[in-house]
Structures are given as structure tokens and as C-alpha cells.
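Study the following:
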Amino acid sequence: MSMTKVNATAATLTKNRTEGSVVPTSGMCVTCVDGCIGMCEIGKSAYRGHEVIYPQPFGVITSAGEKAYPVDYSHFNIMGTAVGAHGIPADSDLAIFPKVDLEVRFGRDNGIKFKYPWIIPGIGSTDIAKNNWEGLAIGSALSGTGLTIGENVVGMDVEATFKDGKVVDTVDLKRRITLYKDWQSDGYGMIIVQANVEDTRLGVQEYAIDKLDINTVELKWGQGAKDIGGEVKLKSLKKAQTLFGRGYIVLPDPTDPAKIEAFERGAFKEFERHSRVGMVTEEGFASRVEELRRAGAKYIFLKTGAYRPADLARAVAYASKYEIDLLTVDGAGGGTGMSPWRMMNEWGVPPVELHTLLYQYLKRLDEKKRYIPAVAVAGGFTFEDQIFKGLALCAPYAKLIGMARAPIAAAMVGKTIGRMIECNQPPVYVERFGNTIEEVFVTASELKRELGAETFAKVPPGAIGLYTYYERLAQGLRQLMTGNRKFALKYIDRDDIATLTREAADLSGITYIMDVDKADVDAILR
């Protein structure tokens, strides 16, 4: 059954007074009493209003929807076999899981190469991204995977400079790109610069191509977390006024004397900065792709969200017609910095449904011999089993899995543990593994050997945390693929998974588990 916690959640720091007795439809306490101080979301909204729309506390958390959808990736199981091998001789001494090849190549010229089949699809101007960028960038580069610099980074940079409404110099964007490129090796992985409406108006991608040696850019239609533009909160009046001057929507109006006076006396403590929603047209899309190619972009990506099926069809059709190098499709409920909480739960097409439609649309174009872009699917992926299922559901078109919230978590944990070790106060939970970086992080010794002691000493713990998390995912995925006797990613197909319910089978087109191999079984038992 699909359900959402309606009126109380850790995301908005709210709870019911009668936690054991709650009306399922409204989320209200069964007995709402006069005299309650308002701990639930209705009550908190009575005195903090629109602030309660967003997950809290802003800047130190990522949030994702907690709605239980009727069908999700747990309703599929991975099918193993005891027979044969694909991509390696069927020899027990050769077909071992360390031999599984996880390298993926994609792009119109097949010139992009990742060591692993996943990418961080877009982390932008939120504090949670900026404060953990060191770990995310260096960890991604060391792992040979992709990282996308999300929307509004330049617009939010108070040290950026502009001329005639276009960016001419930055601090934050330069830092983010440099942190990745300085640790990239052997051409693996990629740093991508994304743009929304405001970024495009400010000339961010042209600046990145011309001045910062970026050859890959991404057009953004949206994401799975929300169907509005990006938003952050601002505690500084000066910064709110700066961003207002750069063309952002800022609420309340930071130039209104009455609002300024109210802020200064503490009537409210933060401003909201919002981005505009894009208006997609084929003409506009084609024009922008051509502009970017003329500006020097070698590869162009497109990211879209959990919009209605016609919008997904547009994304697929345009990506094919204008030969986009990667199309990322992000299902509803995705993790984010501070999207509206109710929107994360109640808006959009969930991942399994969206990715099934994506497969169907791509197959239709494939049957017509059209150009098929590489595809990344996203929407709450965290571990190797889900990665396998996502690649299988959209096989042979899915080349990558998009993940953001899980890599952020790994980088944050690595950073936190590193700080505590530096203070000689390793957490009790971690101390059993040791009290140094090399003892606690299981990949540290090998990474030190590869990089050399001097270089390794410069790797921040957040990056080691992400690198180690990725190493776990890689080994886990190799083991699952070995069980299916698939020793390279190109051999994964839709027959490698089965559904556990008829509903999931009807929705996805994947075979119900009791119907798997029927023809083979009949031939064996005849």
C-alpha cells in the first residue's frame, strides 16, 4: 500500500502528541486538544508558516521522500545461474568475481570512460554540497567516476565578478573544478557543469568552456525531488540583496524597507532564494545545443526529472534528434538539499514507473534505427543490488546509475571520522577498528601505496570515505554479476531480474518469477 507520513516527520522536525493514535488520512492526532503547543506540522505551521515547507535544519542535512510506492526496486529479484559465462571462458579458475569488468564507455564518440557505472548527477549551491565538495570531488576523481556541478553555483558565489550581466571570473566554480581535475588520472571520470535558467543567462557554461577548460556541460530540465527551480535559505541580508540583484527570486523582498526592518528586529531570520522554472521548446533546445557546440562543448548532457510521460517522451526524442551524449532520468522522491517536503513525497512519477517508460520510449526509437543516447537512471539508489536492477530494467540503454544522497553521506561520514581522529577522539563505534586513518579506512593502505605517502597525506578523509564506499559498491556489483555469469556490463539484460509480484510484472514488462525460464524448463523436462 502506498502511504506517506502526513503530519509529522523528522524531515520538518515535527511529531504528533499522540504518536500511537494518529488518523491515517490526515496525520492528525486522534484527539487534538486545545492547549497543545503545536509540535505537529499543522501546529508548527501556525507559528512558522512557510518555513515548515522545507526540511530542517537547512545546510547540514540531505532529505528524501519517505512515501512507500506501490512498486519499487525491492519488488524485483536478481536471477543467478549455474551454467556458462558471458565475457569470459566458462572455466571455474577464470570466471571469478575480481575479473568482472565494470568499466563503461559512452558518448557519441564513445570517448567518455568511467571505472564504475555510476555518476553524481548534480550537486549545486546548497551548503551541504559546498561544505562537502572537497570529499566529493577528490573521491570521485580517485574512483574514476563522474561528478556534476549543479545549478546556481556561480550565482551564489559572492566573490564572482560580472560584466554586462555575464560572469567573467569566479572563486567557487574554479575551486570545484580544480579539486576534481587535480586528482583525475588516466582520463577516467569527468567533471560536468550544469546550467538552469539563471546560469544560462549569466553565461556560466560558456565561461566554464572558455576559461576553465571544461568540455562537458549539462542542460537541466529538472530532477526527481521537485518540479520547481532550486532553492536555498540565506541568513545574510547583504547576500540576499546581492542575489536579488543578480536576477534571482528572493523572498521576502530584501530591498523592501519594511522587510529589511522586520529582518533586523528578528521577525524572521532567513530569506529564501528561488530559481525560475525552465520553459522547454524544441526550438529553444536545439538552439541551445548548437550554441554550446559552437562555444566548444565536446559533450552535452541532459538531465530531466519525474515529470509526466509526455515530458519524458520529449526528453528522449530531443536527446535522440540532437544527439545528446547522456540523458539522466531522475525518479520522484529523490534526495536533495532542501526541496519542499510535501513535494518530495507527493509529486511526480516514481522510479520504477519512470524508468520503465524510459525503456519503452527508447526501444521504440531503437526499432526505428534512431540515434540512442547513453542513459543514466536515478532516484534513491544506494547499493549494488539496486544498481544491478536499475541497469537491468533499462538494459541495454542504461549505462550509468545516478546517485547523490548516498555519496554525500559517505563523504560526510569520512569527513566526520577524520576530524575526530585528528582530535584523538575516535568515536567508540569506530575505535574498535583502530585510531588512525589507515587503520579505520579499509582502503587507505592500498590507496597510500598507489598514490605514494606524500600524496596520500593530502587526501581528505571525506574523499577516502567516498572512495571506500565506491570500492564496496564495486566489489558487491562484481559478485552479483558473477552470480549471473555476466563478466562485463554490456551483458546485463532485462532477463537478469524477475518480479516478485504480478503487479510489478504488469507494470515493468519484466517476467514474474514463477514464469521465468518456462521454455527452458519444458525442454529440460520433456
